[in-house]
Design a protein that fits this description.
This protein has 1 helix and 9 strands, in the order αβββββββββ. Strands 1, 3, 5, 6, 8 and 9 form a 6-stranded mixed beta sheet that branches. A 3-stranded antiparallel beta sheet has the order 2-4-7, with no helix packed on it. InterPro entries: Ig_E-set, ML_dom, ML_Npc2-like, NPC2-like.
Length: 150
């Protein structure tokens, strides 16, 4: 007999996995790393519908091509080919699931949150997410289309 909490977890597992389908993304200049997978949850279809007042989970699996003591995330909303900085709660990659120092040839799971503030306009745009190393080179850079909605 399966214990009840485990049975619930097993029952909920497929639904949870369905919310975190790997996204189609555009690599926008990953130099010092290679992206293996990008997940935004919940985002079952693209463009991702981002509801104001909600926070979204970001999970990027990537392999590093270099060694680096640390990393820093930069997020932008790209509109009409202009990058507008988008604040995130934790820009330090070493506090976002990555064990630092980063080692060459190792894979990492970068985890963060994307909060969508209620004061943001309802608009279609491109989210551009960068993670840079100590030399300000791209460990990864990816873009996905989103639509901010009420």
């Amino acid at each position: 007999m399966v214990p009840l909490p485990l049975a619930l977890l097993l029952a909920l597992g497929p639904a949870t996995i369905a919310l975190a389908e790997p996204l189609r993304f555009v690599d926008c200049g990953s130099i010092d790393g290679s992206i293996q997978e990008v997940n935004v949850s919940p985002c079952p279809t693209q463009p991702c519908l981002l509801h104001k007042g909600t926070s979204y989970s970001i999970n990027v699996t990537f392999a590093s091509k270099i060694e680096s003591q640390g990393s820093k995330a930069r997020v932008y909303g790209e509109m009409l080919h202009v990058d507008i900085p988008f604040p995130i709660p934790e820009p330090d990659g070493c506090k976002s699931g990555i064990q630092c120092p980063i080692q060459k040839g190792h894979s990492y799971s970068y985890l963060n949150k994307l909060p969508v503030k209620t004061e943001y306009p309802s608009i279609k745009l491109i989210v551009k997410w960068e993670l840079v190393d100590d030399q300000d080179q791209m460990l990864f850079c990816w873009k996905i289309p989103v639509q901010i909605t009420s």
